[in-house]
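#lab-general

N.A. 3:47 PM
ok so I finally got the sequence cleaned up, no stray characters, all 234 residues accounted for. can someone with queue access submit it? mine expired

B.Y. 3:52 PM
send it over

N.A. 3:53 PM
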Amino acid sequence: MVKLIINGMEVQAEEGWTLLEAIRWVGFDVPTLCYHEGLTPYGACRLCVVEIGKEPRSKLVSSCTYPVEEGLIVRTHSKRVVNARKMIVELMLASSPQSKTVQDLASQLGVQQIRFKVEHEDCLLCGLCVRMCAEQMMAKAIDFAFRGGDRKITTPFDMKSEECRRCGACMYICPACQLRCDGPQAEQDICNACLQITPECLKTYDDVMCYLTTCGACLKQPETKQKETKNNKS
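B.Y. 4:20 PM
back already:
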């Protein structure tokens, strides 16, 4: 067993586990997009980033590919981590705003604006379809081609693949193939129909103070304090 510290709590994890496995085993929620339990971890989207080590030498790593280490200090919801995740989701929205998966992530993380040009490139280059085709369907009919801005997923030589069985597994797992639901502002690039409240505690502290999926209870505190103040004065 490996002992590490996750959000100030000492945790034991199996050797060979990734940080994501250990974090989720404890019960902390970490958002993911390119990760799938039935596929090899890829670390492409970086949405599962966590902060490891002590400041000022701490760093961000993808938890789905980073192995657990003895004595490692992990912070899953620090201000630095939350800001990084929001930036990543903004970039995803700029590439694939029609994706319900991405729109839901934006609402979950409290992203309410896109500071980048929306290009509707559709593909997020998460590699889910490539790994699904190779590892689950045993076909390897598609793969990545080129690098940088020209990187894309295609068949060998952009020709009809003889290995493809038209099973549809690539479309089934693709987050960009999922059209978003019609929210109250569906005509805009960002929907926010299911928006959750951004943790107010991050305005004061470097880490969130609770790990509830639906945050916002702390917003009632100022109002409660005002009432208590009025009662004390009276």
